[in-house]
Design brief:
Elements lengths: L17 H10 L7 H18 L4 E6 L2 E7 L5 H17 L3 H10 L4 H4 L13 E6 L3 E9 L3 H15 L3
Antiparallel strand pairs: 1-2, 1-4, 3-4
Helix pairs in contact: 2-6
Pfam family, one: HbpS-like
Family: Belongs to the UPF0303 family.
Protein name: UPF0303 protein ABT404_36520
Length: about 170
């Protein structure tokens, strides 16, 4: 079954609604997620970043284990710190880091003001997306850091759409 395009490739200034972000999360689900899948997805993200000359770092974790990491030219150690902080949000909330931030903004507050979590440890900024397996749930995350947060989010979503052939 063909799914409609989840993330528009135009009008990057338009911020997606909470409903749109939740739809992405419902649709971007794996049947399984193996070590080989982590390598293939990570390699796809690196290939996309190289084509765009995007100065990003890419990370894939499953069940507390780092399965993939790459840092491209222009990325810095700060990107690794952002990856860790965004990944912790996915692990804690089971939702995309951008979606978690959007839910707080929709309530008229911010993650930093209202989550009661240390902002040095958690960042509800775009770029980390849960790896969800059918009939299992969230088992890990795929994270990109180096672009503005909405672009980081869209970059990961675009790669997941391609990988999952949606």
């Amino acid at each position: 079954m063909q799914h409609p395009q989840i993330t528009p490739r135009f009008a990057p200034e338009l911020t997606p609604s909470v409903e749109e972000l939740e739809k992405q999360q419902r649709l971007l689900v794996f049947r399984q997620f193996t070590y080989d899948d982590a390598w293939a997805l990570g390699s796809l993200l690196v290939e996309m970043a190289r084509e765009r000359q995007a100065p990003v770092a890419v990370d894939i974790h499953r069940a507390g284990q780092q399965l993939f990491h790459a840092a491209l030219p222009g990325s810095t150690p700060d990107n690794d710190a952002w990856i860790t902080r965004k990944r912790r949000v996915v692990e804690r909330y089971g939702s995309a880091s951008y979606l978690v931030g959007a839910r707080f903004r929709a309530k008229g507050t911010t993650f930093e003001e209202s989550s009661r979590l240390d902002p040095d440890e958690y960042a509800a900024h775009g770029g980390s997306f849960p790896i969800t397996v059918e009939n299992v749930g969230v088992i890990g995350s795929v994270t990109v850091s180096g672009l503005p947060q909405l672009e980081d989010h869209r970059f990961v979503v675009e790669a997941l759409e391609s990988f999952l052939k949606l």
